[in-house]
Amino acid sequence: MTQNDDPPKLYRTLAEWWPLLSPPEEYAEESAFFQELLVETCEPPCHTLLELGSGGGNNASHLKARFRMTLIDLSEPMLAHSRALNPECEHLQGDMRDTRLGRLFDCVFVHDAVAYMTTEEDLRCAIETAYVHCRPGGSAVFAPDHIRENFITSTDHGGSDSGGRGLRYLEWTWDPDPGDTTCLVDYAYLLRDAGGSIRVEADRHVEGLFARATWLELLQAAGFQARSVVFEHSELEPGSYEIFVCRRPL
After folding, report:
1. pLDDT tens for each residue of 145-167
2. What is the topology classification, in CATH, of domain 148-208?
């Protein structure tokens, strides 16, 4: 999660429900895909990884077996989830647009939190943060939820139960204005407490939506050698999502 004028409830007042919305075991396949790209793009050695916008630490719970990780997120409640899940990782609170650690890493990973960059300037700043922390010869992966070329209106649902509590959600992704650089992801949550009481919460996420050419232009302007790669996952239609794989030249 990163800063927004009105941060979604999921990262503030509803953060305690995060593990029921997005269990870490669901991230095994995609984390393996990201790891392969990071390692094959990085000039050896390849030991350290900085994750910007690490959220509840679900990707880190898989990647930490391969990398020594530093995790950055703006939301303290999400960092608390990640610290419990990944106590061996370094956790720091910060905004991906302006965090400066004064250190270099073999790899930098920016998962779907990059979607909260809603302007080209926001995105440029996040990319610059990744670049200045990536050592020469190192690699970076950016995994936005959507790019303009493959965006479609969609719905999804899910949720899980634990400790007597339960969560179910309906997710609706849509774009009210194709002429701007944002889309909307609206959630309806059904939240059941341990006593059986249920309440309903609505939560709007404003996400950035940029063309492939914009992504590549900003990545290359920062100094990266960049390419788009089709995101491969068994639950997705082939070719429906793209991510960006980068190398900082020696």
Report:
1. 999 999 999 999 999 999 999 99
2. S-adenosyl-L-methionine-dependent methyltransferases (2.20.130)
